[in-house]
Design brief:
binds guanosine-5'-diphosphate, 4-stranded antiparallel beta sheet, binds manganese (II) ion, D-amino Acid Aminotransferase, Chain A, domain 1
Length: 379
């Protein structure tokens, strides 16, 4: 899950990172009120999950509450890289003498977190990486963890004076705690700014949380932005289904990730396009089947739906009952093809037959059939 800047800064603040006070606003009026309560110059920042907001006109200074109102209104009307701006962060503004880059990211190749630092901050770091890679300092964090002497050794050459370097080293140690204890796969500060008085602060926050750790962070739910999640993705998450929406028109409901991948391959092999990847998992409770059908039919323009069930732990009769219950509650308007084999297959076939449905045991046949029927629907 990607966090908005204001959420990232909230996480930073929990670990004692220096960030400037601010609040999020959904309307120009709210922005004006926040600016008034903060006093002085504020910065209004679009809260969209895209980089380069500054260049796109999504970051503006305001010197008084009325100006904050105007700037917030302008920014709330923007669409940045295809993302409409629903919220702005109104924060105390900083005077900036110099901008650095500081991040910790998982390096999958080296299987270790990687610290990346640069004195060329503020701008697009990808650009620096391309044109002047020598200006990015990289350090793989060893298994025993990041130590304060690592942080000091990394920061000392980058900063002109010792006081700034030690503030930056302290920030890096805190960023490491954000990354580890916060279960992030990316924690980035760009810019890490130095004020004319020599104070070092995190002016931006980009955080990606590792969804695999969701079970130990009850508070992540509050950060989930409904505007960033489709209804299908939400339902899948709530019901514990692995779901990825694709662009095709053949909906697939499959038990097991490997079989789901294989199913998509076979659909493609016969010239069809899968509408989704969907793994209903080992259990076959009817609720999951109902949720699966709902997700597929509301999110994609499907012209056919394929159930591909290999009954091991999953009992085919449970899935059949799920299909019957679901179709009874809300009939489908597109053809349905069912392939099932394995545990309690005969029972399942009986349940489906009684309901007027049939099922095959051949995956190959089922895939060809659903593609054919989908084409009839389209024709
Ligand atoms: P991004 O472009 O999406 O990465 O957004 P940033 O939060 O990094 O802001 C872009 C740029 O706006 C920064 O590099 C700064 O130059 C400027 N900026 C952001 N906050 C402030 C602030 O408080 N005061 C000043 N003077 N400039 C700021
Ligand atoms: Mn930035």
């Amino acid at each position: 899950m990607n966090l908005h800047e204001y959420q990232g800064k909230e996480l930073f603040a929990r670990f004692g990172m220096p960030v400037l006070p601010g609040q999020v606003a959904g309307t120009p009026e709210e922005a004006r009120d926040i600016a008034a309560s903060l006093g002085g110059t504020v910065v209004i920042k679009a809260q969209v999950q895209a980089g380069g907001r500054g260049k796109a006109g999504g970051v503006k200074l305001a010197h008084n509450p009325d100006e904050a109102y105007d700037k917030a209104r302008d920014i709330l009307a923007l669409t940045i890289k295809g993302l409409p701006v629903h919220k702005v962060l109104v924060a105390q503004a900083a005077d900036i003498a110099k901008e650095y880059y500081c991040a910790i990211v998982m390096d999958r190749e080296k299987k270790a977190p990687l610290v990346m630092l640069s004195a060329e901050g503020g701008v697009d770091i990808e650009e620096v990486a391309k044109t002047a890679p020598e200006k990015i300092v990289k350090f793989h964090i060893p298994l025993e963890g990041l130590r304060s002497y690592h942080a000091r050794n990394l920061m000392t050459p980058l900063f002109p004076d010792f006081k700034q370097a030690s503030q930056a080293a302290d920030i890096l140690m805190r960023l490491y705690r954000v990354y580890m204890e916060g279960d992030c796969s990316l924690a980035e500060i760009n810019p890490l700014a130095v004020t004319p008085e020599g104070k070092v602060i995190a002016l931006d926050a980009k955080v990606v949380l590792d969804d695999n750790a969701e079970f130990r962070h009850k508070d992540w739910d509050n950060w989930r932005d409904p505007a960033e999640e489709t209804p299908g993705a939400r339902l899948a998450r709530e019901k514990g289904l692995s779901y990825v929406k694709l662009d095709g028109d053949i909906g697939c409901v499959v038990n097991g990730a490997g079989l789901a991948m294989a199913t998509m391959d076979v659909i493609k092999h016969y010239g069809g396009e899968p509408a989704n990847f969907l793994d209903i998992g080992g259990s076959s409770n009817p609720e999951k089947v109902t949720a699966a059908l709902k997700i597929i039919t509301t999110e994609s323009h499907v012209r056919g739906i394929l159930f591909n069930i290999f009954g091991g732990i999953t009992r085919c009769d449970d899935v059949a009952n799920g299909i019957v219950a679901s179709l009874t509650a809300s009939p489908l308007s597109v053809p349905l093809v069912i392939r099932l084999t394995g545990t309690n297959e005969e029972k399942a076939r009986q349940i489906l037959n009684d309901f007027g449905l049939s099922a095959t045991t051949s995956m190959d046949e089922a895939v060809r059939m659903v593609i054919e029927k989908a084409q009839e629907v389209g024709a």
